[in-house]
Design goal:
This protein is mainly α. The chain contains 7 helices and no strands. It has one domain. Helices cover 84% and strands 0% of the residues. Helix 2 packs across helix 4 and helix 2 packs parallel to helix 5. The longest helix has 40 residues.
Length: 217
């Protein structure tokens, strides 16, 4: 299961528990209800900011690997673009949702034995998300180690197509979450990811055509 699928399932559990708790509470004045709704929206923004930073980190690492391993200039250029764009998006995330990068950098310490019990549910889920993303990245890197030359290029593009397609689906599902500034960030991220996906698909087709031409000679 991909890291993003784990994140979605975890959030569904969190929201289900939150709904149960809210249903059990007496009806609050409208002002309190609005404040509570705003608080929940802030929690969601923080949660999905963490999710997006994890996804961006994985794409940066895989793209840097491709820059080192591929001998194809077009692959190297695409990988450089992906790494730069996702780095820029991470900077934007930390600007719109301050503290996201600090939470990301502290995640490894938070996963140490003895640290988990005292965390709230949402924080615990974020820690699980981080581990899932790291697992996904590690497995992807190990898979790419099995390929060389054009086979490596095609495997890298396949990962990019799958990862970016899933990320677009996630972004579309949360496009109404958070403040207007956060929603603008989601829209910018979606446009960037769609551009990467289009480039990866087009380059994959080109390399496959080149391979067929070479075989027919």
């Amino acid at each position: 299961m991909s890291a993003m699928r784990v994140l979605t399932a975890a959030l569904a559990t969190t929201l289900g528990l939150s709904s149960f708790a809210l249903a059990a509470e007496p009806t609050a004045p409208s002002q309190d209800a609005a404040a509570e709704a705003q608080k929940r929206d802030q929690h969601l923004s923080r949660y999905f900011a963490d999710v997006l930073m994890l996804a961006n980190h994985s794409e940066i690492q895989l793209s840097q690997l491709a820059q080192r391993r591929s001998t194809n200039q077009e692959i190297q250029q695409l990988a450089e673009t992906i790494a730069e764009d996702h780095s820029r998006l991470n900077a934007a995330i930390d600007r719109v949702v301050p503290g996201t990068r600090k939470r990301f950098e502290a995640a490894n310490r938070e996963r140490q034995p003895g640290q988990q019990a005292r965390h709230r549910l949402l924080t615990r889920l974020c820690m699980i998300n981080h581990q899932a993303a790291e697992n996904h990245l590690e497995r992807s890197e190990k898979m790419l180690e099995n390929y060389q030359g054009q086979d490596f290029d095609m495997a890298f593009l396949g990962l990019q197509i799958a990862n970016h397609n899933w990320l677009i689906a996630e972004l579309q599902a949360i496009d109404d979450v958070g403040s207007s500034e956060f929603q603008d960030l989601l829209q910018e991220t979606t446009q960037t990811v769609e551009h990467h996906l289009e480039k990866a698909v087009a380059l994959s087709r080109k390399l496959e055509d080149d391979r067929r031409t070479a075989r027919s000679r």
